[in-house]
Specification:
single chain; mainly beta
């Protein structure tokens, strides 16, 4: 068979240009650990768990170069549980009644971690639409908290909101139906704005239910990294009482040699109730990995109880993609409280009781 060489060269050149203009990849993380938790008044629970160092996930992402400094981007990311092979729940409207009650995600694979489409301009920033992190959540991640929101030392145990007065907030981490603007880095300054819809009809008594607005402004340069963020979600209870949820936080850290010194303060308000949380911690780099430590205090008003948490951990890098890790944490409820626990396998049944957990695991990414 004979080929027209000039035509073949044109075709090959066009295909190469397309490959350079558009990229796509499959990515993921598998995180599995042996976990032991115990709580005052409850039996010990032994389990194989996930998300102890980094959240397990499976995703697809890509970009297309549109020219002139403009790109289009997509990102689909699903939470997975490698210990049992299930997916995870998601929330479609940011509302208290929109969350699946299944804790194991037996409905299968969803892209509840992130599902976005974007237009990115190298000078103007990014316009992002879909389901994504709310701006205030970014101050709870591992860049601002020694453990981020993973494992027995995770920030979520004392930094996430407590259900109150008929409202269970669903936007402490992500919001669906969102439109966000992410400012490009400007001499260290950055910003993230979001507006998300609850998608209600206009003739109901709570048309704004599930609507979220949030902002985060930060500065990162040299050894300093700091940011302030706040977000509010509109909620109205079945009794037609406004019970909005507001989260505000400030995080700052400073890299001093091998030690990153970290402070994070957060307040969650639901109606007249609030919880205020402060964390002091460090990520300390060593030749083989990283030592982590966090001490957290929580003060509650009108809901739950005061509490403290101590957590320590170590990550041992085997390669750039694979690590072994271990964590230990204890949460102590104050007074007659029993709200806060390590993990979810058992609860504190004795007033003023404590909860403890430790884990050993493996994390690998691709």
């Amino acid at each position: 068979m004979k080929f027209n060489k000039p035509l073949l060269l044109v075709a090959m050149t066009s295909m190469a240009g397309f490959a350079q203009a558009q990229t796509a990849e499959v990515f993921g993380v598998l995180d599995v650990a042996y976990l032991v938790t115990s709580a005052t008044g409850s039996p010990r629970v032994n389990s194989i768990s996930t998300d102890s160092n980094t959240s397990s996930r499976l995703g697809f992402r890509g970009t297309e170069d549109l020219g002139g400094g403009m790109k289009a981007s997509f990102w689909l990311e699903s939470a997975i549980s490698p210990d049992n092979g299930t997916g995870a729940v998601t929330n479609t409207n940011n509302q208290s009644t929109g969350q699946s009650t299944s804790p194991t995600g037996t409905q299968g694979l969803t892209f509840g971690r992130r599902s976005t489409a974007s237009l990115i301009d190298s000078k103007l920033g990014e316009l992002r639409v879909g389901r994504d992190y709310v701006p205030s959540f970014n101050n709870l991640t591992v860049s601002m908290h020694p453990f981020g929101t993973n494992g027995v030392g995770n920030a979520g145990q004392l930094f996430y909101p407590v259900a109150a007065n008929g409202t269970t907030a669903r936007t402490s981490v992500r919001a669906s139906n969102s439109v966000a603007y992410i400012m490009p880095d400007m001499n260290g300054f950055n910003a993230h704005l979001m507006y998300a819809l609850g998608e209600n009809t206009s003739d109901v008594y709570n048309p704004d239910d599930g609507k979220h607005t949030g902002i985060r402004v930060g500065y990162r340069n040299g050894p300093w990294n700091m940011a302030y963020a706040s977000g509010t979600t509109k909620y109205t209870t079945a009794a037609k009482v406004a019970n909005d949820y507001t989260q505000s936080n400030f995080a700052i850290n400073y890299q001093m040699g091998p030690a990153k010194l970290m402070f994070l303060t957060n307040e969650n308000k639901i109606g007249a109730t609030n919880t205020k949380t402060n964390m002091y911690g460090t990520q300390y780099g060593v030749a083989s990995g990283q030592i982590r430590f966090a001490y957290t205090t929580l003060k509650a008003t009108g809901v739950a109880n005061d509490a403290t948490q101590v957590a320590v951990g170590y990550v041992h890098d085997l390669s750039k993609r694979t690590a072994l890790f271990t964590n230990y944490s204890t949460v102590r409820n104050q007074g007659t409280g029993k709200q806060f626990v390590v993990g979810s396998g058992n609860g504190v049944t004795t007033p003023g009781g404590s909860s403890t957990g430790y884990e050993f695991g493996l994390r690998t990414s691709f």
